[in-house]
Every structure is written in C-alpha cells, then in structure tokens.
Amino acid sequence: MTESRRAIPEELKRAIRQRCGFGCVICGIPLVHIDHIEDYSVVLTHEESNLTLLCPSHHQEKTNGLLSREAVRAANDDPWNLRTGVTTPYLLHYGEESPTFVISGQEFRAPAGAEYFVPFMIDGAALILVEREAGQALISLRMNDVFDFPQLIIARNEILMSAAAYDVQLKGNTLTIREAPGKILVELVFDVSANKVRLERGTFRLNGVQWVIAKDQPIVLPTQTIGSISIGAASVTFGTQIGLGLGICPPDASIGARIPQIDRYTRGPAKLPKQK
C-alpha cells in the first residue's frame, strides 16, 4: 500500500503566500495553486524552498512541459507581485443587475432603477459603491489599515491587494485578508450565481473612524433616518442612493441613515478580539 501524501501545514502555506506576494510568481494573479517545483513524487517532502505559487494557467503549462522548472525557479526568486508591490488585478464577473451586499447577514439593496448605490460611506467617501454602466454592474470597495493605506481595493470589478499584507488568501470564492496573526481585516464571499457579495467580517477605516463588521452579528442602524428604509429580519432596502453614512457627510446628500457623532482613534484603533 502506498503512503498517502501528507498535507502541507497551514503555517507553511502562509509562509509561501507571504514569500510569493500572494499571487502567481510569474503573472501575479491571486488565484493560485501551491506547486512543488521538483515533483513531490521525486522529493517526497514539503520543503519551503521547493514550493511556490502558480495560477491555474501557469500550473498547467508546467505540468504539460510548456513551462520549465528553471523558469519557475527564477520567478520564485523574484515574484511578480513583490516587484510591483500589489497583486495583478483580478476581474470579478458579475452581470447586469446590481448585486446585493450582504453585511453581517443583512442584505443591502439598491433602490429600483438606480444607476449607482453607496451602501456605506465615511466622511463623504464611498467605501462600498455599486454602479451600472453600459448594462454592466460594477463593484468598488476599499479597506484600509490604521494609517489609511489601502490593503484591498476593488475598482470597478477589479481586485487589487497590497503585497505587504500579513496574509491574503483567495480560496474558492472567498477572499480573506489578515492584518496580523489572528486578526482578519476582511472576509468576502463573491456569490456570483446569487448575484451577491457577502461581507462576513471586516474592519472599515478612514480618517480615524473605524467600523467593525462581526460575523453573524446584525448591524444596529440609528433610529433617526430619512427616505424610505425597509428593515426586515434579514434585509435592509434603502429608498436613497446612499445607505449608511458615518462621520462628516455632505449635508445635502440623500442618505438613508447617518451617524455623525462617532469616536475617532488617533494612535491606532481599540484592541479588537482575535478572530480565527
């Protein structure tokens, strides 16, 4: 009976992702496989120096003999994303209808016929934006660190991530970015078949304002609102094109719910509970 292959330890996987800049070492795309440069059947071990990240296309090229081990080793020594500082943009494939954002289990929907919808803004800046242009739904989203440096940008359906993050993992349709051990910046599920974007947990920051989304913890909206807002057990539908606004927002903007008075951090945010 042949011995089954041992699984690669999670800590080793994270070390490989960090070293490779969270993307294919050749092209930078963040949708990747962990590849043994010298085949596992030959080395029979998981040595970090022999492991790298390849996208499905380059992984198949290497398997088919169209990409040499020497070329992979050279790219492994000088990964694409570490040269550029960011991952290569990855395109989301949403359709014509504006997708619903599901935040902590509650659905944020755009008003009927709206050409754009801002589910969430801080100080007048749209940190989540859904647009419709030429029959195509376009998603934009921004997640910052405590210094307001972007760690994740989705710009009109293109995902772009910092190669300096602690850890980035795009597994299936779920994107997880960690700021530090046990500290998740964002966990996003791109449910394209249901036309939804699920924000399972995350921390939005801008200008000292911090909004924490906890998994399975419903959002508490302020009682003083304008426009038409329908709040059900699992959905929030705004009659305005801007949903929730925190901090200083344009006075003439049509915002469904405002929270103008909000604490701001100066030397870093309050310590958050660790998340696995």
Write the layout of secondary structure elements.
Elements: H1 10-20, E1 33-36, H2 40-43, E2 51-54, H3 56-63, H4 69-77, H5 80-84, E3 90-91, E4 100-103, E5 106-109, E6 116-122, E7 125-133, E8 136-144, E9 150-155, E10 158-161, E11 167-171, E12 174-180, E13 183-191, E14 196-206, E15 209-213, E16 229-231, E17 235-238, E18 242-246, E19 255-259
Parallel strand pairs: 4-14, 5-17, 6-18, 18-19
Antiparallel strand pairs: 1-2, 3-10, 4-5, 6-7, 7-8, 8-9, 9-10, 11-12, 12-13, 13-14, 14-15, 16-17
Describe it for me?
The protein is built from five helices and 19 strands. With 276 residues, it is mainly beta. The chain has two domains: 10-84, no CATH class; 90-259, no CATH class. The strands form three sheets. Strands 4, 5, 11, 12, 13, 14, 15, 16 and 17 form a nine-stranded mixed β-sheet that branches.
Structural class: mainly beta
Low-confidence stretches: 223-234, 268-273
Number of domains as seen in the coordinates: 2
Helix content: 10-25%
Kindly report how far apart the N and C termini lie: 37 Å
Rg for CA atoms: 21 Å
Secondary structure: number of strands: 19
Could you give the order of the helices and strands? HEHEHHHEEEEEEEEEEEEEEEEE
Number of helices: 5
Q: Which oligomeric state applies?
A: single chain
The major β-sheet equals: 9 strands, mixed
Strand content: 35-45%
Average residue pLDDT: 85
Shape: elongated
